Amino acid sequence: MRIFRKIHSELNWSKRRYFGVILSVFALTYLSSAIYHTHKALPEGLNYSSQLKPTPVQFLADKTYIDAQGQQQLQQQIFDQTLKLIEQAQSTIVLDMFLFNPSHGDSKQQFRPLSQELTDALVNKRKQNPNIEIKFITDPINTVYGGTQSEQYFQLRRAGIDVIETDLTPLRASNPVWSGLWYLCCQGLKNNTETGWLTNPFGNEKITLRSYLNLFNFKANHRKVIVVDTTEGWKAIVSSANPHDGSSRHSNVALLVSGATAVDVLRSERPVAKMSGGDSPVVVFGDLKEPVQTQAQVLTEAAIYNALLALLDGAKAGEQLDLAMFYLSERKTVDALIAAKKRGVKLRILLDPNKDAFGREKNGIPNRQVASELHKAGVDVRWCNTQGEQCHSKMIIKSNTKDSELILGSANFTARNLKNYNLETDLRVLGNRDQQVFVDARQYFDQAWFNLDGRKMSVDYAQYADESKLKYGLYRFMEWSGLSTF
Transmembrane ranges (predicted)? Predict the structure, then answer.
């Protein structure tokens, strides 16, 4: 204390000057924290790009549509196939799923209990084969960052299944305005499920302020994959679909791959488990039993972005580009689409209208603002005909008279999903346009675009057109700053 008094006496500063110095130090520290955590090195093994390898690839889809009688119908393949893979597994099952809970918000629709179906399948598999290794990696949003308990976690762990909730702290800050402060004040705060008093945005349980402090970082392990070993070799599904009850009515797409590419999917999960304090899944070599013509590549994080821009920039006049996307907002991607249109590439863009979120109404940002920009540039845009659910597909396919290229998976085309912030997994597939995977992907898109077979799956651009300059400016600010959930 004497030292401080002596310093104070010698400096003879006013209280205002002391306050100014303290405020300046805090501001510098906050700014340094925000910059560092936005650009810090990623854990080793993320931003992964495997080699292109010959791979059998099957296209899967969940379709939600209005039939000729005006009734909503659901046609689902993805989790039916996921459950089949679990049945076929021999010694190993590894899953990495973003949303895994029974919540459905304020929606009054009927939902398929996907989270419990998946839980029961894994528990039953463990009972049938007590020696099977099952690792379930998921995102902490399912317990609202430690503020609630998960019945599904409890059932899995009681069966001896390893549940790894992803540690998001090592990931970069996509919302540096908040994260710059959070890393200084709050990252070490332990959460609990007993003292909640605030409204839960995802369910009925009360949550703590600490849950919200973590939520505002807007970080996520957004991957959606399963890898198993079967008597026919390794198989994996990379998808846009979540095992989440509230998402069970969504339209989604997925790819089923085998052999070495399935092993590459497994390999891409090792760094996620490691950074979260879990044991790494065992990686073994995967062979193909027969030659195939399609090639596939596993992409995670910004590797998806690089492949996407290469696809768009390489599109030539007369080629066809079809994009089906839940969120489209990343600026270089939007600019590349417009540039492709100017080069004579034929574009069709199918977007979710961003109006529904589990019973709550959204304001259309960012898709309606991006669609306005694309429409003015002469790009053909249509909207999915959603009726409370979401058009949650995330895929782009390029075709010419001979070849096709497809990128599909968990990643929305936004800065958060493409620029090394979220954890994401996509597959890139190359081959002859007549290969079945490309035929099926184009058929999925064409059916939605043209409302084929009496199925009302899309509507004209004019139905959700929004030319508001204020909302466009808000979208640009949200995309630039990270102050958004997209």
Answer: none
Beta carbons within 10 angstroms of residue 44's beta carbon: 10
Q: Could you tell me the pLDDT band of residue 358, with boundaries at 50, 70 and 90? A: confident
What is residue 204's predicted lDDT score, i.e. its pLDDT?
84
CATH code at position 174: 3.30.870.10
- What's the rounded Cα separation, in Å, for the pair 62 and 77? 6
Structural contact between residues 247 and 74, judged by C-beta atoms closer than 8 angstroms:
no
Residue 201: is the preceding peptide bond cis (ω within 30°)? Answer: no
CB 383, CB 464: distance < 8 Å: yes
Nearest to 261 by CA among 232, 238, 230, 243: 238
Residue 44 inside a domain? The answer is: no
Which residues have C-beta within 8 Å of that of residue 178, sequence separation ≥ 6?
A: 216, 217, 483
Radius of gyration from C-alpha coordinates of the chain: 24
Cα–Cα distance between 486 and 334 in angstroms, integer?
Answer: 15
Distances (CA, A) of 107 to 114, 249, 357, 429, 465: 16, 11, 8, 36, 25
pLDDT, tens digit, for every residue of 392-436?
999 999 999 999 999 999 999 999 999 999 999 999 999 999 999
Looking at the 3D structure of the chain, how many domains does it have?
3
Q: Are 360 and 468 in the same domain?
A: yes
Do 198 and 247 sit in the same domain of this protein?
A: yes
Same domain, 154 and 299: no
Backbone angles phi, psi at 106, to 5 degrees: -95, 5
Domain boundary (242, 275, 308) is at 275
Structure tokens at 93: 């099952």
Continuous H helices in 188-330: 209-215, 260-275, 302-314
Residues facing 207 on adjacent strands: 198
At a CB cut-off of 8 Å and minimum separation 6, what does 451 contact?
457, 458
Helix (H) or strand (E) holding 165, with range, is strand 162-165
Phi-psi region at 142: left, alpha or beta (left = phi > 0; alpha = psi -120 to 50): alpha
Cα separations (Å) of 118 from 60, 137, 267?
18, 13, 23
Residue 263 shares a structural domain with residue 306 = no
pTM for the whole structure: 0.94
Alpha carbons 435 and 429: distance in angstroms, whole number: 11
Based on the fold, state whether residues 411 and 453 are members of the same structural domain: yes
Are 200 and 157 in the same domain? yes
Q: State the DSSP H helix or E strand holding residue 58, giving kind and residue range, or none if neither.
A: strand 57-66
Q: Which residue has the tokens 């339209």?
A: 251
Q: Which domain does 29 fall in, by range? A: 2-39
Tell me if 235 sits within 8 A of 56, measured CB to CB.
Answer: no
At which of 218, 242, 275 does a domain end? Answer: 275
Task: Give the pair of three-digit tokens for residue 381.
Answer: 């845009």
Q: Is the pLDDT of residue 7 over 70?
A: no
Q: How confident is the model at residue 5 (pLDDT cuts 50, 70, 90)?
A: low
Tokens standing for residue 466: 């929004």
